[in-house]
Write a structure and sequence with these properties.
The complex is a heterodimer of chains A (782) and B (434).
Chain A lengths: L2 H10 L7 E7 L15 H9 L7 H11 L3 E5 L6 H15 L4 E5 L3 H18 L5 E3 L6 H10 L2 E4 L1 H8 L7 H5 L1 E6 L7 H20 L5 E6 L5 H9 L3 E4 L9 E6 L3 E3 L4 E2 L2 H14 L4 E5 L2 H14 L13 E4 L5 H13 L4 E4 L14 E5 L5 H9 L8 E6 L4 H8 L1 H5 L13 H14 L2 E2 L10 H10 L3 E6 L2 E6 L5 H4 L9 E6 L5 E7 H7 L5 E4 L2 E9 L4 E6 L4 E20 L5 E19 L5 E6 L5 E11 L2 H6 L2 H23 L6 E6 L9 E6 L7 H7 L1 H14 L20 H12 L12 H8 L5
Helix pairs in contact in A: 1-11, 3-4, 9-17, 11-12, 17-18, 22-24, 22-25, 24-25
Chain B lengths: L9 H13 L16 H10 L3 E5 L2 E11 L3 E2 L2 E2 L8 H7 L13 E8 L9 E12 L2 E10 L6 H12 L6 E4 L6 H11 L10 E4 H9 L8 H9 L13 H11 L2 H30 L6 H13 L3 H14 L4 H16 L3 H12 L6 H15 L3 H20 L6 H24 L1
Parallel strand pairs in B: 5-8, 8-9
Antiparallel strand pairs in B: 1-2, 2-7, 3-4, 5-6, 6-7
Classes of the chains: A alpha/beta (782), B alpha+beta (434).
């Protein structure tokens, strides 16, 4: 096989060649080596030599040296640049010096933890140091837990388990905490927004427990490229963290191609779908023997592409599952199946994998030859991560980005410098969000009585929050003079009541009705409405199943294998209603905040023929609607403007305003864009006007709606400033969004609206945090 | 770095948190159980429950000591036999506890009351211990209770307990589910107060294990409250508090300082350790045969002895249960267990009539009894005709069970029986042809 041959084939293909809008080449990078730090024991260095690692890359040497000297580190280098060594060596060295020493590894998901366990075992065996590593997560058998608690040198876990399983039971982990030398936090960039704010509070609690046991561990963090790794790491850990970003790992030449599917309907401007374009391009790569990963935006696209690519390989006769060279990979596959696919990719048996962003995180599948992105994944960081899946140390690799038909995709195709330039999103968190901090303060008191001297460590609102909790009878507080100590005095187990992640804990289990019945997968509750409703065709790893019954009470879907020439696509209607307005302002700038109910209702599904994608029938979905009650902020367009403009102009302005506010709000809230949703309503039943709603993803909300309302004027002023200063002509992803149709004048209309909505003409205040300003400056592309 | 948030004022937070809390069910307040007692009885109870301060290195807690002469009866069980319990007997009650060389004086009866089931935020606010000792020259059971009248005093409770118990003398920890709960909990509490305890590494004389071996299926559950009624005839006093209500009683006490909240908990805790001592005396009596056991007691004794690997002593107990009990599932069990003991003792002939007793009545062991009879006739009595009859009868029962939609393993039995039937018939054929 040859990648060059594949590229030649793509560029020469009469069906495809003309629609490749750009080809660019990023030159290969040579390796930069350094020497091992003197502090590393020679025997460890020898062991590394036996593993074939003669010298470290520059970033490895720096990180190891810094960590050994007791300085907190964050290592920011691309996938497959040897990050594992950066933290494993200090840990090995610590255990070599003192067999009682302990380390805690925190990975965002169980799958990643599993992966690390395998990698560590190899290194440990070679080094000949007795290091016992254990994972501790929801799957750890109760009988094994004691051994993990007492004997494990390295305990691998995730933030959720640390939060509910380890910290509240710290007295059972005395050995770990008394001897804790290193805390490793991998995939640091995933800890942002509300999730990151929660994790920062968990880490505050961790450091507190460490202090109780007299330990002061060094934090070693690893992150993919983000704008502010040092700041994020410092906020998360509460420590000063050194940034190591001088990547010394070599990489081969990277070729990046952008493909814009041809227009198939000139009048409506409809382009050929990404699925079919991705099929053609990947089929060419397949036939040249190029090992590829295809990122398909959704789970159903994963299955569709898997099916098409198998057919492209030579038709129907199916390989047994274990030998199939084309595999799907997404959430909902069982862990065992996923591990097998990862292994197949590493050893080359699997030639093509079609995945959702479930494979975006640092799961070790080795470097592949090519990555095909069927559509823009939504953030620059994801784009980089997905393209980075293709990449060899010494050989060339290819990334093909296929544009979808959305304005955002089209904008990026036209302005490639935006996507491939230096800028990238920042990771923002606010550990002091009062709602989040209050939840964790309860956990902290539960874990250890809180003394007055500790208040500073636990966030600025701690004294006020403690008063509140005492008022509610959750605490027993003793006071002598200036000092006070708060004791937990409630039956509740507070960690159980706080979920670090955004809801969706309930899963629907998918059961194949064979004898005996077999669980083939699972799907989260909201998605189940559209994926496994009655009569749906559910596709799992390219195999079709008919859903005979979805038992919504028991959360079980009963399926049987079928072989049909269509798939199903269901429509989910999302509606937003204001339940209660807590506060509001009158005209001219109607705005407010309160509790809203967001309802999801699956209504109908279509049957769509494979390949031709023609509609061949439909059916009704009979499921109750799902409700999310949460906080929201809303603001309406000024009446004057609405009165003087046409419907399409008003609609354009409403969407533009929404996009702009959605771009700015995360910076004010120090959250992740995904923590907020945007719903523009052309005539809102609540305000009676064209209104933009920004609502929180977290059930119940964490006060973002209220906060946006309180700083509403600042929000509007920053929005005005940002859009006014943006050099684009009529909208871009960084301001009011790319225009859906040109020459509508959306941007100037939004600017006018903002001028009118502003309550006072003060200049832009400087209340924006430093990190937010930087992030703002570096274009918060969403 | 500064965030753009205005400094949140207390009202703002209050509103936010109220909103969150409003979504969760609020705890119901509970009427104090002692309210129901007449005033004079309350006064008397208060008198009896008098605590005095106990000083320790970690400050003071409250302590009370009560001495029970061995003539004292827990329910209808006197404490006296406890004094002569041997290690060998203890080993019969809790097999695997390694208590063969222990003495009755080594037994440390213990029960704790906590504010939750686990985690560092649940405190052990009340601890009761009971141990054999001397009072005025006579042997007696000495009950001690340590109370933390507020959470900070828990440190002193731990210290006082560790001082009095002297873990380095290696007592045997006698509890009800203490292996799973009380011991690890106390060790955790000691860690919270920067002490090393080690209750978990003591020999665990956990009577829950005994109760499960002896009473499973005979009582609605193996909770101590059920077992003590059955074994000791002990009824709890009116107004005694249920285990699940204990944390709320304590929190109410903390808030109101009204002793009526905590008194029932103290009584409950004291009764629990006394029940443990009584139960040990009682069960020791029935497994050693010092107490004449009849009926269900004999079945319990048989079960315990069988579980302790003493079939020769279990068999007479089952025989006695068989004699005493009216037709019932308990009697069926006694017959089946006795038959199984005879069989493994090499006397299938003695087992046969017992298997018939089981086989002829509906109940759990019926199919198994049929199979045992078939084995007996096929291999020992060499009466293939009867073996075939028994198999046919058993299959009949299986079919009926299946038609009642009561599979409970019936499919498995049917397969085994069909297989056995086929073999017996082919043997019969061969016999006839020769």
């Amino acid at each position: 096989m040859s990648l060059q041959d594949a590229i030649t084939a793509l560029r020469g293909d009469p069906q495809l060649a003309a629609d490749f809008v750009s080809w660019r080449s990023l030159p290969p990078r040579p390796a930069h080596y350094a020497e091992w730090p003197d502090a590393l024991d020679p025997r460890v260095v020898e062991a590394l030599g036996r593993c074939g690692i003669e010298r470290p890359y520059t970033h490895q040497a720096r990180a190891v040296e810094g960590a050994l000297a007791g300085r907190h580190q964050v290592v920011v280098t691309p996938t497959a640049s040897g990050k594992t060594l950066c933290y494993t060596l200090p840990v090995l060295e610590a255990i070599r010096q003192d067999p009682a020493a302990r380390a805690l590894y925190i990975f965002p998901t169980k799958a990643l933890a599993q992966d690390q366990l395998n990698e560590l075992h190899e290194l440990v065996t070679e080094a000949g140091i007795d290091v016992k590593t254990f994972t501790f997560d929801g799957d750890t058998a109760p009988a094994a837990r004691r051994a993990v608690r007492t004997a494990g040198h390295v305990v691998i876990t995730n933030p959720d388990m640390l939060h509910t399983g380890i910290l509240p039971h710290h007295t059972k982990w005395v050995r770990l905490f008394e001897n804790l030398r290193y805390v490793v936090i991998d995939e640091l960039h995933t800890y942002r927004g509300v999730f990151g704010s929660h994790v920062a509070n968990v880490l505050r609690r961790l450091r507190r427990i460490c202090r109780f046991y007299g330990a002061d561990p060094v934090f070693i963090c690893c992150s993919a490229t983000i704008a502010n790794p040092g700041e994020l790491a410092s906020h998360l850990t509460g420590c000063d963290v050194e940034v190591v970003d001088d990547n010394g790992a070599p990489s081969g030449e990277r070729i990046v191609a952008c493909y814009n599917p041809p227009i198939v309907n000139q009048e409506l401007g409809i382009r050929r779908g990404v699925v079919r374009s991705a099929t053609d391009i990947t089929a060419t790569l397949q036939s040249e023997g190029v090992q590829s990963i295809v990122f398909a935006g959704s789970r159903s696209n994963v299955e569709l592409l898997t099916q098409y690519l198998r057919e492209a390989r030579g038709g129907r006769p199916r390989h047994p599952v274990g030998e199939e060279p084309v595999r799907g990979y997404r959430s909902g596959y069982l862990p065992k199946e996923r591990r097998a696919i990862e292994a197949g990719l590493r050893d080359g048996r699997i030639r093509t994998v079609v995945a959702t962003n479930a494979l975006e995180l640092g799961i070790d599948i080795g470097g592949l030859d090519a990555a095909v992105l069927a559509g823009y994944p939504g953030t620059l960081a994801s784009l980089r991560q997905q393209m980075g899946r293709a990449g060899r140390r010494h050989e060339a690799s290819l990334a093909v980005v296929i544009a979808g038909s959305s304005p955002l995709d089209q904008y990026l195709t036209a302005h490639a410098e935006y996507a491939f330039g230096e800028s990238v999103e920042a990771g923002l968190i606010n550990p002091d969000n009062p709602v989040i901090a209050a939840e964790h303060l309860k956990c902290a008191v539960f874990e250890l009585p809180v003394d007055a001297e500790e208040h500073a460590h636990l966030g600025p609102d701690t004294p006020a929050l403690l008063d509140l909790l005492e008022e509610q009878g959750m605490l027993h507080v003793t006071r002598t003079g200036e000092t006070s100590r708060a004791y937990w005095s409630n039956e509740a187990y507070p960690a159980q009541e706080v979920s670090l992640r955004n809801g969706a804990e309930q899963n629907v289990v998918i059961i194949e009705q064979s004898t005996p019945p077999r669980v083939i997968g699972e799907v989260d509750r909201p998605s189940a409405m559209t994926l496994v409703h009655d009569e749906a065709i559910y596709v799992h790893d390219g195999r079709q199943y008919h859903v005979d019954e979805l038992d919504w009470e028991e959360l079980k879907a009963y399926v049987r294998p079928v072989d049909v020439d269509y798939y199903t696509d269901a429509h989910l209607a999302v509606d937003l209603k204001v339940i209660q307005e807590w506060d509001g302002t009158p005209t001219p700038a109607v705005s407010g905040h309160g509790e809203v109910a967001v309802t999801y209702l699956a209504t109908i599904f279509k049957k769509i023929r494979l390949h031709t994608h023609e509609n061949i029938g439909w059916g009704k979905i009979r499921l109750p609607q799902d409700d999310l009650h949460t906080g929201a902020y809303w603001t309406a367009l000024p009446d004057d403007l609405v009165a003087t403009r046409g419907t399409s102009e008003v609609e354009g302005a409403l969407h533009g305003l929404g996009r702009l506010l959605a771009n700015v709000a995360p910076l004010l809230l120090m959250c992740d864009p995904r923590d907020l949703h945007l719903s523009p309503q052309v005539k809102s039943p609540h305000t009676g006007r064209p209104t933009v709603f920004l609502w929180e993803s977290i059930p119940g909300g964490v006060g973002f709606g209220q906060h946006l309302f309180e700083v509403g004027d600042t929000l509007l002023r920053i929005a005005l400033d940002l859009a006014g200063a943006c050099p684009c002509v009529d909208g871009c992803p960084g301001c009011v969004g790319p225009p859906p149709t040109p020459n509508l004048g959306t941007k100037s209309l939004v600017l006018r609206a903002l001028e009118e909505m502003r309550a006072s003409p003060d200049p832009l205040s400087t209340s924006l945090g430093a990190g937010a300003s930087e992030a703002l400056a570096s274009s918060p592309l969403r | 770095m500064t965030t753009a948030a205005p400094p949140p004022n207390l009202d703002h937070l209050r509103a936010l948190i109220r909103r969150i809390e409003a979504r969760r069910p609020q705890p119901k307040t509970l009427a104090s159980p002692l309210e129901r007692h007449a005033a004079e009885r309350r006064a008397e109870a208060r008198q009896r429950l008098a605590f005095r301060p106990r000083e320790t290195a970690a400050g003071a807690c409250l302590e009370r000591i009560e001495v029970y002469p061995l003539a004292y009866e827990v329910g209808h069980q006197p404490l006296a036999p406890l004094a002569s319990v041997t290690g060998e007997t203890l080993a019969l009650l809790v097999p695997g506890a390694e208590v063969e060389d222990a003495t009755a004086e080594d037994l440390l009866f213990l029960d704790i009351e906590t504010t939750g089931l686990g985690g560092a935020g649940a405190i052990a606010f009340l601890v009761a211990t009971a141990r054999l000792g001397q009072r005025d020259g006579a042997p007696a059971l000495v009950l001690r209770q340590y109370l933390a009248a507020s959470p900070p005093e828990e440190a002193a409770v731990v210290d006082a307990l560790l001082e009095d118990v002297a873990l380095d003398t290696h007592p045997v920890l006698a509890t009800y589910n203490g292996r799973g709960f009380d011991a690890p909990m106390l060790d955790g509490r000691a860690t919270m107060h920067r002490r090393r305890a080690g209750f978990e590494v003591l020999r665990q004389f956990d009577l829950l294990q005994t109760a499960r071996a002896g009473y499973r299926g005979l009582l609605p559950s193996c909770r101590l409250a059920e077992v003590e009624v059955a074994a000791l005839g002990l009824g709890r006093p009116e107004g005694e508090v249920a285990g699940a209500a204990v944390p709320r009683c304590y929190f109410n006490y903390l808030r109101t300082r009204d002793p009526r909240w905590i008194e029932p908990v103290i009584v409950h805790n004291a009764l629990d350790v006394l029940a443990l001592a009584g139960l040990t005396a009682r069960l020791a009596g029935i497994v050693t045969g010092q107490v004449e056991t009849r009926g269900v007691d004999a079945l319990v004794a048989g079960r315990l002895l069988a579980a302790a690997g003493r079939p020769e002593r279990a068999a007479p107990c089952f025989a006695r249960a068989l004699d005493d009990l009216p037709p019932s599932t308990e009697r069926q069990e006694a017959a089946a267990r006795l038959a199984a003991l005879h069989k493994s003792a090499g006397r299938p002939d003695l087992a046969e009539p017992l298997w018939w007793q089981v086989a002829e009545r509906p109940g759990h062991g019926r199919l198994r009894a049929h199979v045992e009879l078939a084995i007996y006739y096929e291999h020992h009595a060499r009466d293939l005709g009867r073996a075939a009859e028994v198999v046919a009868a058993a299959l009949d029962h299986v079919e009926r069970a299946l038609s009642r939609d009561d599979p409970a393993g019936a499919h498995r039995w049917r397969t085994a029986l069909l297989w056995r039937g086929a073999r017996v018939h082919s043997k019969l054929e061969r016999q006839r042809s020769t």
